[in-house]
Amino acid sequence: RALVGGIREGLYVADGEGRLLDVNAAFAALVGATEPAQLVGRRLADLMADAAERERSLAAAASGSTTEAEVALLAPDGGSVPALERVTVLRQADGTVRRLGVVQALGAAM
Length: 110
Prior knowledge:
By secondary structure, the protein is an alpha+beta fold. It has helices at 2-5, 25-30, 51-61; strands at residues 10-15, 20-23, 66-74, 80-91, 97-105.
């Protein structure tokens, strides 16, 4: 937890349905949450300015590879935050799917 907490990029783990299982403080800050726990259980699509874009991104990641795309996260003020998102699909031995995402705001120092 200490290692992940110190990383400047936003990190998340989501289930196969796109629900957040864990996020770091940097990801929480990107979407205006004061605590990472506020985001656990929320759908990633609900944090994107364009939900259709998010669904396309998740579908592409379902192939089992790593995908990278520019996305727009919802900002607390109702605007959007342009970001670069890299998603890797991890398939566990029992068949469950986990998505590991790394998100970095574009055009802003974190």
